[in-house]
Here is the input.
Amino acid sequence: MIPLGIDAAPAGQLCQLADDLFWARFELPFRLNHINLYMLDTADGWVLIDTGLNNQATAEHWQMLFTGPLAGRPIAQIIVTHHHVDHIGYAGPLAELTGAPVFASTAEAEHAYWLYDLSPDEFGLVLAKIYSRYGLPAETIEAVRQSGSRYRRNTAPLPEFRSLETGDEIKTVSGCWRMRTDTGHSDDQISLIEDNRNLFLSVDFLLPRISPNISADIRDPDFDLLSAYFAYLKDMQGLPDDMHIFPGHDWPFRAGGARALQLIDHHHQRLDMLAAAARDKPLTVWSAMDVLFGRKFGDHEMYFAAGEARAHLTHLAAIGRLQTSKDDTGADLYETPNRLRQPSSGLVS
Here is the structure.
């Protein structure tokens, strides 16, 4: 990974990355304290790519852009790349402000609607049941049951979504950007590629500094998301070394193939750590979190750390390195196959 040496513009301003591509950095109130949003210049007006979180800081930042560098031209489209709150949270207000249609992949829109339609009590109950399966402490489970919906706290009422899928294109003033969708960090994230100029909006699937979070889906924690992400990273190893990559967080970079290989190695190291720990005693998600991270988390980080640990355990089970069972409380256990208790061979008298 080689940074391009391009700095984000101050709030209310845009950084021009290509003739038709612009970048704005918005603040986030989390440990990962920012998100990169992008704008494409087309004959019909601006195409906005992602929206930011639903909070006052986001609203004020968009207002500065609409009265500043985006002023005087219509907003032609809004694209939500995936359902996570920092990308979709302000989509509803932005659609109302601009009158622009909002696009997303079908799977991402469905996941967003499912999460948003859960009442605070329903969301807390769903997450509490998942955390029970993960073997988290009773006090943590009870706290999350009463904490309401972390999704609704950060997401405005959702707009109607129109569908974008792999192969769809956006024609700009300087070229043509094609869509691809991939599974791993989310269900079916949209990214955009301009092949003629070697430009790639990778959003959250290929980041220069941190590893994208690969979290088990709380709707189906047994689905092997990590296998899908490995397939994506294998494909990314073939990126041209000089392709300019524009991520959802941190800074623009190149040498994406080398970065993909680093991420593959990172996840294999984590898988090996868990497999080694399971040789000593069966793992729950809770104990796997200690193996992987070795520290405690607040509510926001707990969600991602637990999901990441579960995704890695699920993958180890899927490829046969671990087998699953349950403990007396109903929590999922993961252990090496030769540790599983065998049926007694004695005769019953």
